[in-house]
Write a sequence for this structure.
DNA sequence: GTATTCTGG
DNA sequence: TTCTACCAGAATACG
C-alpha cells in the first residue's frame, strides 16, 4: 500500500522551501541524479497564457518534495529559472506531472522548454479510464486513499455572482509556509499516482497509445496554444452591426406575423406562440419538461408546409447565434499581451480520444452557411509575409471503416478515387455511377454517415423525410452491397460483449459497461458506441 | 444548475 | 416492444 504523508499512515513527510541561490543550486545537483522528476507549478491564475509563476515544486521520492518560490519580481524569477537550465536542457530527463500541458505552457512564456520526455498522470488515467473524472483531488482519493489540501483553504472560493461576493484570492498572497505544504503535496501525490498508473497501463495494454500518441502530443499542443492566431477585430465589429440589424428585421417580422411581441430568444415562449396561439401543428411534440420542441428540424418541417413566419424565426436564430457565440465573443478573447487568440485544447476530455477546444472553441467555427462562413475571414495571417494554409483529411472516418472492415466494394471505391457517396448510391440503387442523381447521392451520403453512428431505419427515415419502408430498403441494399461493413459491425459488437471494450487502431480502448444490459435502450446506446468509437482514430504513419 | 438550441467533426 | 445517430463547447432562458 502506497502512503502519502501525515494524514494517511502517519508516515513522516518533508516538504522543504528552497529560496537562496546556494540552496537552489544544491537542489538542482540533487535532481541531476534522477532521471524521473515530478514537477508542478503554482501560478496567479488558471489561464496559462495570462498566469504569472508563483512557485515550482519537485519530488523524486514519495513523502519528499521541494518548493521553490518565484517572486513577483519577474527578473528575479527568470534568474531562478536560469538555475534550473541544466535540468531542462537534459533530453534524458522524464518530467512527470498532472496536466503537464499547463505547466509547460507557463514555462514557455518564460522561455523555458524542457528537452526531456513527458509522463502525464492525467493522460495516463485518460487512457486507463477515458470516461472517468480525473482532477488531482479525485485521483488522489481514489488511488491513494488520501484527501489533499483544498486550494480554497489557501485562496478562498471562486467569486460568486452579485454584490458582496468574495473574489478568489491570488496564490501570490499566500504565505510560504502554507503554499509549501500545498505545492509540495501536489508534486508528492503526482509522483505516487505515476507509480500506481504505470503498472495499470501495462495491465490494460494501453501503453502504446499513451507513449506514442498522448505524451508526445503534449509539447505539440503547447506550441499550438502558445502560438495562437490573429483575429481581425475591425472586421468582426463591422459584421456584428450588420448581423444586429438583420436579426432585428427578422425579429420584428416575426412579431408582426404573430400579432404579439414576446422574447423570441425563449424557446418556451416561442413554442407557446407557434402551437397554442397560431396552432401551426396540432400534434406538436413536447420535451420531457413539458414545453414545445422548437429545434431547427421541427421548424424546417413547419417551413416546408408554407409557414412564412418560420423562415424569419430561423433567420433570427442563425444570426443571433453567429453574433453572440462568435462575432462578439472572439474579440473579447484576444490576449492583450500577444494581440492574438489562444485556445486551450482539452487532451483528456472526449471519451473517444479526440481533442476538445475551449476559450474559444476553435473546432466549431461556422462553415455550412454563407453568413456563417463569413466569420472565417476574421482569422488572418500575422502579417503580409505569412499566409494561412489549410489541410484536411477527406472522408477519414469512412476510410477507416473501409480499412478496418476490409470490405472489398468500399475499399475498391476509395482506391478508384471516385466520390464515395456517388459510388455508394450507384451500388445501393443498382445504377451506373453516371446515372446517380443528386437525390440518390444525398440519400447515400446520409446512409454512409448513419452507418458510422449505428443509425437504424427510423433515424434514416426521419433524417431524410422518407418512409420507414423506403429507409429500410436502402439500408438492406447497403448491407447487401457492402457485406464487409455489416460483418464488421456484427464482429465489433460481439467483441465488445465478450471483452467489455472496443479499441482503435492505435490501441485506445473504450470500456462499455452496458454492452450486455438487459435493457434494450441502454444496450442499444452501448452498441452504437461500440460501432462508432473505433472509426474515430486514424492509424498514424 | 438544468434544459434547450446550435455550431463543428 | 422500444425509441430511435456518435462526440464535443457555448449562449440563453428560467427556476
Amino acid at each position: 500500500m502506497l502512503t502519502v504523508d501525515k494524514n494517511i499512515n502517519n508516515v513522516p513527510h518533508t516538504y522543504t522551501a528552497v529560496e537562496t541561490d546556494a540552496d537552489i543550486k544544491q537542489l538542482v545537483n540533487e535532481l541531476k541524479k534522477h532521471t524521473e522528476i515530478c514537477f508542478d507549478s503554482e501560478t496567479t491564475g488558471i489561464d496559462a497564457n495570462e498566469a504569472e509563476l508563483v512557485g515550482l515544486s519537485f519530488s523524486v521520492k514519495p513523502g519528499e518534495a521541494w518548493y521553490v518560490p518565484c517572486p513577483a519580481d519577474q527578473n528575479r524569477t527568470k534568474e531562478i529559472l536560469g538555475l534550473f537550465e541544466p535540468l531542462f536542457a537534459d533530453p534524458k530527463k522524464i518530467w512527470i506531472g498532472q496536466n503537464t500541458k499547463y505547466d509547460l505552457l507557463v514555462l514557455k512564456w518564460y522561455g523555458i522548454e524542457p528537452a526531456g520526455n513527458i509522463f502525464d498522470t492525467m493522460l495516463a488515467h485518460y487512457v486507463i479510464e477515458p470516461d472517468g473524472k480525473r482532477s488531482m483531488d479525485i485521483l488522489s482519493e481514489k488511488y491513494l486513499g488520501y484527501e489533499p489540501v483544498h486550494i480554497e483553504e489557501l485562496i478562498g472560493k471562486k467569486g460568486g455572482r452579485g454584490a458582496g461576493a468574495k473574489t478568489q484570492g491570488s496564490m501570490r498572497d499566500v504565505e510560504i509556509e502554507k503554499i509549501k505544504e500545498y505545492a509540495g503535496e501536489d508534486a508528492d501525490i503526482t509522483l505516487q499516482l505515476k507509480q500506481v498508473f504505470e503498472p495499470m497501463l501495462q495491465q490494460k495494454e494501453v501503453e502504446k497509445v499513451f507513449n506514442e500518441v498522448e505524451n508526445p502530443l503534449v509539447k505539440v499542443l503547447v506550441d499550438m496554444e502558445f502560438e495562437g492566431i490573429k483575429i481581425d477585430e475591425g472586421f468582426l465589429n463591422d459584421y456584428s452591426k450588420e448581423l444586429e440589424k438583420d436579426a432585428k428585421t427578422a425579429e420584428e417580422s416575426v412579431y408582426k406575423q404573430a400579432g404579439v411581441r414576446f422574447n423570441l430568444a425563449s424557446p418556451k415562449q416561442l413554442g407557446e406562440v407557434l402551437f397554442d396561439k397560431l396552432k401551426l401543428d396540432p400534434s406538436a411534440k413536447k420535451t420531457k419538461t413539458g414545453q414545445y420542441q422548437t429545434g431547427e428540424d421541427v421548424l424546417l418541417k413547419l417551413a416546408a408546409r408554407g409557414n412564412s413566419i418560420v423562415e424569419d424565426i430561423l433567420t433570427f436564430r442563425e444570426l443571433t447565434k453567429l453574433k453572440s457565440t462568435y462575432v462578439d465573443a472572439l474579440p473579447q478573447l484576444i490576449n492583450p499581451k500577444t494581440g492574438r487568440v489562444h485556445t486551450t485544447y482539452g487532451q483528456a476530455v472526449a471519451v473517444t480520444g479526440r481533442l476538445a477546444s475551449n476559450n474559444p472553441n476553435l473546432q466549431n467555427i461556422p462553415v455550412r452557411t454563407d453568413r456563417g462562413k463569413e466569420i472565417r475571414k476574421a482569422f488572418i495571417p500575422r502579417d503580409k509575409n505569412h499566409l494561412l494554409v489549410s489541410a484536411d483529411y477527406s472522408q477519414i472516418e469512412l476510410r477507416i471503416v473501409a480499412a478496418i472492415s476490409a470490405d472489398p466494394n468500399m475499399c475498391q471505391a476509395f482506391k478508384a478515387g471516385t466520390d464515395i457517396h456517388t459510388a455508394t448510391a450507384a451500388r445501393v440503387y443498382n445504377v451506373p455511377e453516371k446515372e446517380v442523381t443528386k437525390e440518390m447521392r444525398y440519400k447515400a451520403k446520409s446512409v454512409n454517415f448513419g452507418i458510422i453512428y449505428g443509425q437504424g431505419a427510423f433515424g434514416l427515415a426521419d433524417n431524410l423525410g422518407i418512409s420507414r419502408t423506403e429507409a429500410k430498403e436502402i439500408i438492406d441494399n447497403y448491407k447487401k452491397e457492402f457485406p464487409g461493413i455489416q460483418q464488421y459491425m456484427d464482429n465489433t459488437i460481439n467483441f465488445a460483449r465478450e471483452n467489455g471494450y472496443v479499441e482503435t487502431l492505435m490501441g485506445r480502448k473504450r470500456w462499455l459497461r452496458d454492452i450486455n444490459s438487459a435493457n434494450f435502450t441502454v444496450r442499444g446506446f452501448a452498441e452504437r458506441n461500440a460501432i462508432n468509437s473505433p472509426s474515430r482514430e486514424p492509424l498514424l504513419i
